[in-house]
Write a structure and sequence with these properties.
Blueprint: E1 7-24, E2 27-41, E3 44-50, H1 60-68, H2 71-75, H3 80-86, H4 91-108, H5 112-115, E4 124-125, E5 128-130, H6 135-144, E6 150-154, H7 160-170, E7 175-179, H8 186-198, E8 201-205, E9 225-227, E10 246-249, H9 251-254, H10 257-269, E11 273-276, H11 283-289, E12 298-299, E13 317-318, E14 321-322
Parallel strand pairs: 5-6, 6-7, 7-8, 8-9, 9-10, 10-11, 11-12
Antiparallel strand pairs: 1-2, 2-3, 4-14, 13-14
Helix pairs in contact: 1-4, 6-7, 7-8
Protein name: Dipeptide epimerase
Organism: Blastochloris sulfoviridis
Cofactor: Mg(2+)
Length: 331
């Protein structure tokens, strides 16, 4: 019997300049630094991408080291189940998990969605992000993007009522969701939620810092509140009771598509709505997440739209409509 070809893991850092300055409550940047992983078996190659996030103690260098430490295990036949059991959730595991999914799909000559037992992905409307800035600057950006059906507005604490009013005036017919990135305090919570509700905002994402969001359970929430930094994988889901109405599933938090699928099932079982989100990365990072878009109330996979140039063979976007990946990209 001929032995199966040994799998080889390679990893590298890549940088994608942004089309403009991307600003949230924690700071600004002009480029996306990602980690790309490839797992080869014979002539076939599976790929994955992650975006290390400093908020979670991750760096590009540390993520590369964590991936490289798995090379021998991958060569020995590491599968997704063992990866999930023995490697903590986060960016490094995500890139390896998604590369394994891609390789499995190629080996089986079947799409990843079929292997996962998921519905065939369809084109989905993604949110388009408006960076944090002055009310005037945000209104100008919203006006320029007002033909898009769904805008995600980054907020930052003080002055958010003025920002959201300015955005709504500039884009009167566009659906709006907002993301405070943990920047609110309990004393501004009710007023800011009321202001968002008055502006017709559909949802507010992570208003309070993770671990300090008890106040959400003590007030009446006029619009849904979505957990982002407060939820990573299934182990953190139980901490959300009474505080949140939805969760934002990002593969860089769950540690890959394998855990994300299970997290989505568990969240639905608790009656939580789903948002499928992303860090700012290329189409290779977005492609696996699109497999979960069918069950999400909100999709936020606009990373490639924020880049000056996406990777070759990237996802196809028509305005805010993002189409499922071609096999040459992933899955």
């Amino acid at each position: 019997m001929t032995a199966a070809p040994v799998r080889k893991l390679t990893v590298r850092a890549e940088t994608f300049p942004l089309a403009g300055v991307f600003t949230i409550s924690r700071g600004s940047r002009t480029e996306a630094r990602v980690v790309a992983v490839e797992i080869s078996q014979g002539a076939l190659h599976g790929r994955g991408e992650c975006v290390p996030y400093q908020r979670y103690g991750e760096t590009v260098e540390g993520t590369i080291a964590a991936v490289e430490a798995l090379a021998a295990d991958v060569a020995g036949g590491l599968n997704r189940s063992r990866l999930t059991e023995h490697v903590r959730a986060g960016a490094a595991r995500n890139a390896v998990d998604c590369a394994l999914w891609d390789l499995e799909a190629k080996l089986a000559h079947r799409p990843a969605w079929a292997l996962a037992g998921l519905p065939e992905p369809k084109p989905a409307v993604t949110a388009y992000t408006i960076s944090l800035g002055t009310p005037e600057a945000m209104a100008a950006a919203a006006r320029a993007a007002s033909s898009r059906p769904l805008l995600k507005i980054k907020l930052g604490g003080d002055g958010d009522a003025e920002r959201i009013r300015a955005v709504r005036t500039a884009a009167p017919r566009t659906r709006l969701i907002v993301d405070a990135n943990e920047a609110w305090t309990p004393d501004m919570l009710e007023a800011n939620l009321a202001g968002c509700a008055a502006a017709g905002v559909e949802m507010v994402e992570q208003p309070l810092p993770a671990g300090h969001d008890d106040a959400l359970a003590a007030i009446r929430r006029p619009i849904p509140v979505c957990a982002d930094e407060s939820v990573h994988d299934r182990s953190t889901l139980g901490e959300l009771a009474g505080r949140y109405d939805a969760i934002n599933i990002k593969l860089d938090k769950t540690g890959g598509l394998t855990e994300a699928i299970e997290l989505a099932k568990a969240a639905r079982g608790l009656g939580l709505d789903l948002m499928i989100g992303c860090m700012v990365g290329s189409s290779l990072a977005m492609a696996p997440a699109l497999l979960l878009a069918h069950g999400a109330r909100w999709v936020d996979l606009d990373g490639p739209l924020l880049l000056a140039k996406d990777r070759a063979g990237g996802l196809h976007y028509e305005g805010s409509l993002v189409f499922p990946p071609q096999p040459v990209l992933w899955g």
